[in-house]
Amino acid sequence: MAEAELVEVIARSYKPTDLHQPPEKPWWKDIAYGSAAGIVSKAFEHPFDLVKVRLQSQPLDQPLKFNGPWDCMVKTFKKEGLRGLWRGVSMPIGGAMVENATLFVVYNQSQALLRRLSPPPPTLASEAPPINLTHLGLSAALAGACASFVLTPVELVKCKMQVQGSLPIVELPPSSTPTAPPPGPVAITRGILRTEGFKGLWLGQTGTLIRETGGSAAWFTTFELASAWFVQRRVNAGQRRDDGSRITKGDLTALELMASGASAGVVYNCVLFPADCIKSTIQTEDELRGGGVGQRRSFMQVGKDIYKARGIRGLYQGCGLTALRAAPSSALIFYIYSRLESIFG
């Protein structure tokens, strides 16, 4: 399909009024719908994310503790039980609410602003004006960049909690006092503030910024392209709405919306996965070296060290599992958001 045809297909998946003026939906609905979608998706995907972080955070100067995702999941379950697979879930759920709310608010408001600054050309009332793919990508990238500043502190605490169970077990003499349980999110946050100050909460920000900016552009764009393909498929089959008007994205079935969201999730996670791998290593190296704040390595240096120790495969440690869990997770996000939008406006 030629680029001009692709742009027209995307444009026609929207209602004409959506493109002539800013969306009527207030920003607080983006927050509500995005938050709801984030809670459900994060609760589902957390065990897979925990395994991914543990695979990424294995010390480079030691043999691998886990031989792959399944081995990591089995060992985690045997050592920590079912509850261990959801270790640190409280922070990600809160973060997912804020992340998705930020993504959808900035994405939709940015598109509205760009449409005002560069309005689409006039068309017949029955036709949808074309969408500028550059505007779509810029809006998505800006949304991801904004979300990254919210995500980094959340992921920092989450990653530190997720590697707690994978640390070596120290056998204590029978007369020794039992060790205290591992610190929770509040204690970890306080420890970061005490040792490194407020800026310490944004350790790993470079990796999150790269991943979210490029990944969000790929995420939203892939979803729009996939859903537009389903719309065009229905149009080519001669389908119309009950009132005789053209099929739009709001008319897609749950399966079509979830398929579009699933493809977006896979693309998002695969496109810049090494940045996420480097970020996880930076955020957990203090715990894996035994506590305390060591000398910080730059983003580039950590990437070079991982590549030197384990090659290109090391930069994609956990990528397969991440793509596997991203498909249903992203499908849930877009489905829940779209359905709430169609029900409540």
Describe this structure in words.
It is a single chain. The protein is an all-alpha fold. It has one domain (3-167, 182-344): Alpha/alpha barrel (Mitochondrial carrier fold). Helix content is 70%, strand content 0%. The protein has twelve helices and no strands. Helix 3 (27-56) crosses helix 5 (90-117), helix 5 (90-117) runs antiparallel to helix 6 (133-162) and helix 6 runs parallel beside helix 10 (273-288). The radius of gyration is 22 Å and the shape is elongated. One of its GO terms (biological process) is mitochondrial L-ornithine transmembrane transport. Belongs to the mitochondrial carrier (TC 2.A.29) family. Solcar repeats lie at residues 25-113, 131-229, 252-343.
What structural keywords apply?
345 residues; mainly alpha; Mitochondrial carrier fold; 12 helices; MCP_transmembrane; transmembrane helix; membrane; L-ornithine transmembrane transporter activity; transport
Can you say what the CATH homologous superfamily is? Mitochondrial carrier domain
Radius of gyration, CA atoms, in whole angstroms: 22 Å
CATH architecture: Alpha/alpha barrel
Q: How much strand?
A: under 5%
* Silhouette: elongated
- CATH domain class: Mainly Alpha
Q: What is the count of structural domains?
A: 1
Q: Cα distance, first to last residue?
A: 32 Å
Helix content: 55-70%
Structural class: mainly alpha
Instruction: Give the biggest sheet.
Output: none
Mean pLDDT: 83
